[in-house]
Amino acid sequence: MIRLSSMMPKAFLMGIVKLVDMIGPEETDKWIISIGKKLGDREGPGFEGAREDGINYMPICPFANELVEFVEIDGERPPQFMDIIKSTNKRREQSDRGWEFPAISNIFCIFHHSYRKHRAEMAGNTMLHLGCKSPLSSMVAYNDKAIEKAGMSRDDVDKVLEKSICVFKVQESKTE
Amino acid sequence: MNQIEALKLYENSIKILKKNQHEKGGYYASPPGTRYPFIYPRDHSIDILGAIAGGLMDEAKKGLEFMLKSQKPSGEFSQRYDVDGNDASYKDLQIDGNGLILFSLGKYFEATGGSFFEEMADREFVLEHWDTIEKTVEFILMNKNEEVDLIHTINSIHEYPAYEHGFEIYANCACCAGIFAAVKMGQAIDKDVSKWESEAETIKNAILTRMYSPRRRSFIKCIRVKDKKSNPIGYDAFASSVIDVDVVEYSPAYFELIAEYDVKNISTVKRIHEQLWDKEIGGLNRYPELWGRNNGGYGPWCHFTCQLANHYTAIDNKDMAEMYLGWVVEMAHNYQLPEHISTIERFEMWLEDYTNAKILRDSKMTMIENTRNHPKWKYGLAYVTIPLIWPHAEYIRAYVNYMDKFHPQ
Q1: What CA dihedral angle connects B335, B336, B337 and B342, to 10 degrees?
Q2: A51 and B362: CB-CB below 8 Å?
Q3: Fewer CB in a 10 Å sphere around the end CB: N or C, chain B?
Q4: Is A2 contained in some domain?
């Protein structure tokens, strides 16, 4: 049941669904990224997450509850979410700067990575999103180009994912 | 109190403060390689106060410069920063940091002038950072609820929203005192700060009336309110009061909003002492055990014990001042102070509670291992996070005041 005071995150997710219908997944992807960047501007430079041996991770996904609840209410994941994820994954594979993209286990990863990466860039670095677990299934998503850029392997990422849900790494811009 | 040991602890505390300031100015909360190798505005501000009390003025200035340059675009200061001043926080708003930075800056400013304030005060430094000071105050006022004239926060000194989300006393006193400090600095450099002065007076009045319980004869911890702009707040989802005794109910005097001798403060401290002085191992606990959030086991905290030692010094109660300060001296290990001290029994009880409830985080494992490996474990005591820098700063302040009052040179 949607209660009025907690309606806004669901309104954002519903907005994504409606926008894909109106303007398609690629434009919606740009729209989501622009929101993440704008909010990053307001927050200023910084690096998220717990840090261990040069790797950052989040023990829990800050958006998981909202997403799970949204999907539970609807009964299934809106296909529009998958349209965006497929489109972004395809562009990542085609890009020669694929390490800049998120590893996507759910629709919020696109938003979150744009915010997180932008804040890292304001601090003079960049952020590689290496992998994450879905809050909705046992699916694990990787960004192999980011993993390679970080000089790591999927096994390395999996080790961190044993105690977390999202793994990323601060990369000094000068190493690009 | 063992005066020789007290002096040695003071001397080592100065060394610890110096050693744990990063070259860029930030004070580590605990040394690199330990539990909190980040810069937390709350700890950092108290470390600056300790540096000022210990005569480390260059270090204090460097610390202030580091923090003032790390402000977020909104005017907020984050929960914590890395050594380069990048936001590295993982918790929601802790607005007391804004107040504390202004408060410590104000103390630095006063100290640079001393008896020759007009001629000597570091006006240049205040002028250089005036824009940051303005944003800091405005951010605080942005979080003021106009119905009750109190500042809203999510976390405060215990970083525990379940207990502190709303109008919390430490955060309100820190912010109010911070604005008063900004007013004094503004007046000294000819800025019009009359609006801020009026706002600070309004907040102070709200603290002294809405957050004081005449029947309990004590300040209270928190008026819990979920949303800062709830109006009327009576309809807020959290609307309730936390009336449990908490060591930071001493905050109105700590932040100099009222005199140490004020009857409201005297009776509040009496309640704190009666209910939070640890009957088994001495020292001051931070809140009642039954709140059940006692990482490393329930037990007394060194920096809160130092704060109350200061109170007893200020009201000329030498016996109590020595009881409090003497406990800190006695519990120091190799002239180092931990975050807090527990017993093996309480430590294991906490571990059992958290393990059974499945709320024991991985990050606690290092702390558990270090506590069990500490030499004091064999004496039946759990020393949790040692050294923590903050209690050394509070000890410097308390020791200097104690010596000035009872053993003037």
Answers
A1: -90
A2: no
A3: C
A4: no
